[in-house]
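From the pipeline queue, job 12 of 40. The input is one protein chain; the requested action is below.

Action: predict structure.
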Amino acid sequence: MARWSPLALVIGLLAAVGLYGSTAAVAAAPLTVAEAIAGQNGSSATVRGYVVGQPTATNTVITSGYPNDYALALADSASQTSTSSMIYVQIPSAFRAEWGLRTNPSLRGRQIDVTGTLSAYFSHAGLTSSTAFAFAGTTTPPPVTCEAYYTGACGKSGAALKSALNTIIRDQTKLSYDAVWNALKVTDEDPANVNNVILLYSGTSRSKSLNGGDPDDWNREHVWAQSHGGFGISAGPGTDLHHLRPEDVTVNAVRGNLDFDNGGNLTHPEAPGNTYDTDSWQPRAAVKGDVARMLFYMAVRYESGDGINLELNNTTSNGSSPYHGKLSVLKQWNDADPPDAFEKRRNQVIFDSYQHNRNPFIDHPEWVASIWP
C-alpha cells in the first residue's frame, strides 16, 4: 500500500467531507526522507530532502572526492551525518550530467525533489529508477520549442545546457578592436535618428561621429570589465560586441571596473538614474536586464577551453579575478527588465552582420534560471 504524507492525508480527509476539492485534482506533497525510509514498498513517490553526499556502501556516504555521478544521499537535514537517517537515490544515466555530485559538487546542501521507486539501493533504504529531479518547490520546465540555431541545447538544463550553449555560441567571427567602432555605430543606432547612437548608461542619443577619447565623446564600454580576467582588448573577449556598448567617456571612466549591484548613493550628471558606490554600479532601470544578459552571455561564451574562464559570483569585490557579480541581483534584473525591441534588434544585427553568433539569454531569458537556479 502506498504511503501518504501527512499533508496528503489531511487533504484526503477534507475531500471526503466536501471541504476540499477532489483528491484527483490535488498533487500529493513530497514525502520527507523519514517517510520514504519507512515506506520501502516498491511504490512510486516524490521525496524531498537535502543532498548530503554520495553513498558508496551500505553504511558509507562521502562528502567530497566523489568517484562518479551514479548516486545521491538525501536527508531531512542538510547537516545529517547518520546514514540510518538518509535515503540513497539512484541516478539514471540521463540525469547524471546535471544531478551527479562529481560533475556538480555544489549540489551538496541543496534541497531537491526526486521521483522514483521506493526500494532498496546499496542494501539500504533507497529511491531507484528515478524519473525526475528538480530543486525543491520547482517543477521540471516544460519542453522548449527551440530555433534551429539552438538545436544542440534544446531540452537540456543546468550544467548540460550551459555546456551546449557554449559549443553553439563559440562558433564566432572575432573582430579587431578598431572594427568595434564602426560596428557599434550600427548595433546601437538610435532608431529615431540614424546619425546617432544610444549610450548605454546615459540613455542619451549622441552623434556617431563623436567617438573617441575627449570628455564629450563616446567610447567602447566593456560591460564585463576587461580587468576582470585581464583580457584587455584581445580579439575575442576584449572585442565581443555582445558586451561592448557606446558610453560617454566620463561616465565610462567612473563606472570603471565596478561590479553590479543595487544601491549606491553617488550619481553622475551625465547618467541620470544610475547610482554607484565604492564597489558597485547600478544602471538605470531600462537597461538592467540588458546588462545582466550581457554578463550571462560572457559567463557562458568564455569557458576554460576558450583561453579564459569567466564566471559569475555573488560578490562585488572581484578586482582582477575572472569573475563578475552580483549574480543574485543580475538574476533579478533579468526578470524585471525583459528584452525589448532595441536589445533584440541588436542581437540580430550582431548575428547577421558581424560575429554570426547570438546572445542566447536575449532569445531565451528563461534559461538564466535553469543554469543559475
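Job complete. The CA atoms of residues 186 and 349 lie 8 Å apart.
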